[in-house]
Amino acid sequence: MISNEALATSLGLEIFNKGEEKNVECGYCGDLLSWVMGKAESGCAWMTVMNNVNVAAVAVLRDVACIVLVEGVKPDENLLSRAQIEDIALYGSSEDSYTLSVKIDKLLKSGI
Amino acid sequence: MNETLKYVYEVDGSDFMSAGVASADVKKNLKMLGFSGDLIKKVSIAMYEGEINMVIHANGGIATVEVSDDCVSIVLADKGPGIEDIELAMSEGYSTAPDRIRALGFGAGMGLPNMKKYCDEFKIETELGVGTTVYMKVYNS
Question: Does the model's ipTM exceed the 0.95 cut?
Answer without folding.
Answer: no
